[in-house]
Each structure stands twice: as C-alpha cells, then as structure tokens.
Design brief:
Helix content: 10-25%
Order of helices and strands: HEEEEE
Number of helices: 1
Length: 106
C-alpha cells in the first residue's frame, strides 16, 4: 500500500513539473540601434473585440517612429473559467474568450 501511495505521489509531482511552461524566446531588452518592436493586444467590448497593433521603430538608439493601428474584429464569445480566491474558495466566472496569436517573421 505504501508503494502505491509513493508511486501516485511521484507521478503527481512529475505531472505538475511537466505542466510548467517556460518562455523560450522571451526578450528582456530590445536592440535599439536598429530594430522594430511590435506589441499585439486585444481589448474586449460587449459585442466585438479591438485588435491593437503597436510598432516602435528604433534607429541609432532613438525612437524613430511609433505606429498604432486598431481594428474591430468579431468577438469569440464567452467561456467559463475556474479560479481560487485568496481564502482558498473556488469560483467559476464567465469571461471573454481570448484569441491566440501566431506570428510569422520573414
């Protein structure tokens, strides 16, 4: 019986550590001598979403230009999300579904 409990505990720990995701390509700073920094975000409205694209163009360590573009896109609707508050109580809340971003750089 102890071996089964120990095995289940070990499997649980391995499963938990396997679920942790690392940001492989996270950038801490931008080379401002000549680069384009891009930020994508979505703002949720009642019936639609707003896709916000921001570009910062850096040249010779100075901000050369900043471009901000906003587009209205269809909302994906609502989803139920479970969570826990600081007291340990579990709650289910309705929230807007988020878009996934896939970026191709050439």
């Amino acid at each position: 019986m102890k071996k089964i409990k120990l095995s289940l505990l070990l499997i649980g720990v391995l499963a938990f550590t396997a679920c942790e995701k690392e940001k492989e390509d996270a950038v801490n700073s931008v080379d401002k001598s000549g680069s384009i920094e891009t930020e994508l975000s979505v703002e949720h409205l009642d019936t639609a979403d707003i896709l916000i694209t921001k570009h910062k163009i850096w040249k010779n360590k100075k901000l050369f230009k900043e471009i901000v573009k906003k587009d209205t896109i269809p909302s994906l609707g609502d989803t139920l999300v479970g969570g826990e508050d600081s007291d340990g109580n579990e709650h289910i809340a309705k929230t807007k579904k988020d878009y996934e971003f896939f970026i191709t750089v050439q």
